[in-house]
Design goal:
By secondary structure, the protein is an alpha/beta fold. The protein has 16 helices and 15 strands. Helix 1 packs across helix 2. Bound molecules: NADPH dihydro-nicotinamide-adenine-dinucleotide phosphate and 6-O-phosphono-beta-D-glucopyranose. The site of 6-O-phosphono-beta-D-glucopyranose has 3 residues, from loops. GO terms for molecular function: glucose-6-phosphate dehydrogenase activity; NADP binding.
Length: 489
């Protein structure tokens, strides 16, 4: 299928941390795809910056290796690869050293109001403040330059506030792009299309018709080489505070008046503010993966037999407003689970009265499942008549739409989230980026849960690798007379 793309204007993008894991694995391949698809013009410049001493040719070699490793061979077109590498430049730069910044200023030249300019901070968050300050001091951003910051955005509410303040000293909010890559995922954007471009679901999207919502982000990977980072963070900070709460917001928010960045973000913020405080002992389960056949335990992965960090969280939340009064939102995420699967499932109430009493089978409740990965798509579970002359027997069936098949005849490549997000930065569209007050509201809700855990000092419940998480997570649902959906690929 031919991709439908609108080219962006030629731009200058400075990537701080251009030799790092994120740049090599995600940013450079994302930019390559955008050029290959005709969206990134060859007049654009991507300027890598890091301490490693090399010239533009050296950086092109590093980028070429990254493309060869992280772009699927079928998508790696030699001509596009060559044209992409030609857009790259490099400046050796220690962001903490004043003297190094002049070379970047020389390479960039004076800001041109016609040419979008963005600074991607793919470095540790402790550098965010200093980079923002130096960009401003050297006048590199001009009046329109944008700054892009990665997660983690703070460790708790005070640190997130401090980070917001340090950026706000040099950039106004309209020029700060806080990445939550889940917002760039195709199906997450499709959730908005599903809800607000179709008349079918909105009348049912409330406490009168919805029994509960389940949001699952399950991974099969462990913490791998990220142990030192992850062990100081845990699943609550790494996944729930950002990705899962953003999914909850998009599911629960009111229709914004328009698809303008602040209209959408205002509505998400209202959801975060409407979240009822949870009782960490009653409403939240934390788990940690143990060892399995050929699989090391979490404690072994991070090299600390006594670690109390969670690699799994399940919780029940309530959005206290008219639309969602009494509807539980169950959130669950973890590493080393049975399958890699992310979905939002909206479970509707049972039909109010069954006329099929005595018939085989029963009319089950409808579930609308929005699959983020793998196989992005939407499934609606229905109850239908079992075919044949054997009387009125009921059976479950699914209306299943896989986007790649439905929209691309099987030939559509689903773009990575970073492709969309980086192009939105260049276009100046902040809709899919978190605003400072949203980030703070999410921490305000999450912090007391973590504080309660720290106070109790308990170890998370152990679960088997390859399972669905700890027993307690099943009990969280069972107590409410409900069940988690199967974690399956
Ligand atoms: P890495 O440690 O792999 O890379 C860090 C980069 O920063 C390197 O290019 C390093 O190059 C550069 N750097 C370090 N110190 C300086 C300095 N003083 N001046 C200039 N450059 C410096 O980190 P990641 O790429 O994994 O992560 C980058 C950011 O993205 C972090 O904030 C991380 O939390 C976030 N992130 C990463 C994800 C991932 O999948 N990797 C996912 C989500 C967020 P050099 O040593 O040559 O200076
Ligand atoms: C990152 C987390 O933000 O998201 C990782 O730091 C996690 O721990 C990753 O593995 C999951 O992203 P995705 O896109 O693979 O679902």
């Amino acid at each position: 299928m031919v991709a439908r793309v609108v080219p962006v204007a030629p731009f200058d993008l400075v990537v701080f941390g251009a030799t790092g894991d994120l740049a090599r694995r995600k940013l450079l391949p994302a930019l390559y795809h955008r050029l290959h698809d005709g969206q990134m013009p060859i007049e654009a410049r991507v300027i890598g910056a890091a301490r490693a001493q090399m010239d533009a040719e050296g950086f092109r070699r590093l980028a070429a290796e990254a493309l060869d490793e992280f772009v699927a061979p079928a998508d790696l077109d030699p001509d596009s690869r060559r044209r992409f590498l030609a857009t790259l430049d490099y400046v050796p730069l220690d962001v903490t050293k004043d003297d190094d910044w002049q070379a970047l200023a020389d390479t960039l030249g004076a800001p041109d109001p016609e040419r979008p300019r963005a600074f991607y901070l793919s470095v540790a968050p402790r550098f965010f403040g200093v980079i923002a300050e130096r960009i401003a001091a050297a006048g590199l951003a001009g009046a329109h330059g944008r700054i892009v910051v990665e997660k983690p955005f703070g460790h708790d509410l005070p640190s997130a506030r401090a980070l917001n303040q340090s950026l706000a000293r040099h950039f106004d909010e309209g020029r700060i792009y806080r990445i939550d890559h889940y917002l760039g995922k195709e199906t997450v954007q499709n959730l908005m299309a599903l809800r607000f471009a179709n008349a079918l679901f909105e009348p049912l999207w409330n406490a009168h018709h919805v029994d509960h919502v389940q949001i699952t982000v399950a991974e099969t990977v462990g913490v791998g080489g990220r142990g030192p980072y992850y062990d100081g963070v845990g699943a609550m900070r790494d996944m729930v505070q950002n990705h899962l709460l953003q999914l909850l917001c998009l599911t629960a928010m009111e229709p914004p008046a328009r698809l303008r960045p602040d209209d959408v973000r205002d509505e998400k913020l209202k959801v975060l503010r409407a979240l009822a405080p949870v009782d960490a002992a009653r409403d939240v389960v934390r788990g940690q993966y143990g060892a399995g056949p050929g699989v090391a335990s979490y404690a072994d992965d991070v090299g600390d037999a006594d670690t109390r960090t969670e690699s799994f969280v399940a919780l029940r939340a309530h959005v206290e407003n008219w639309r969602w009064s009494g509807v539980p939102f169950y959130l669950r995420t973890g590493k080393r689970l049975r399958a890699r699967m992310s979905e939002i499932a909206v479970a509707f109430k049972d039909p109010p009265h069954s006329i099929f009493a005595g018939a085989g089978g029963r009319a089950g409740a409808n579930v609308l499942a929005i699959r983020l990965q793998p196989d992005e798509g939407i499934t609606l579970s229905m109850t239908v008549k079992d075919p044949g002359p054997g009387g009125m027997r009921l059976t479950p069936a699914e209306l299943d739409m896989t986007f790649a098949e439905q929209l691309g005849g099987g030939g559509l490549r689903m773009p990575d989230a970073y492709e969309r997000l980086v192009m939105d930065v260049i276009r100046g569209d902040q809709t899919l980026f978190m605003r400072g007050d949203e980030v703070e509201a999410a921490w305000r809700w999450v912090d007391p849960i973590i504080a309660a855990w720290e106070e109790r000092g308990e170890r998370p419940a152990l679960y088997d690798p390859g399972s669905s998480g700890p027993e307690d997570a099943l009990m969280l649902m069972h107590r409410d007379g409900r069940r988690w959906r199967e974690i399956s690929a």
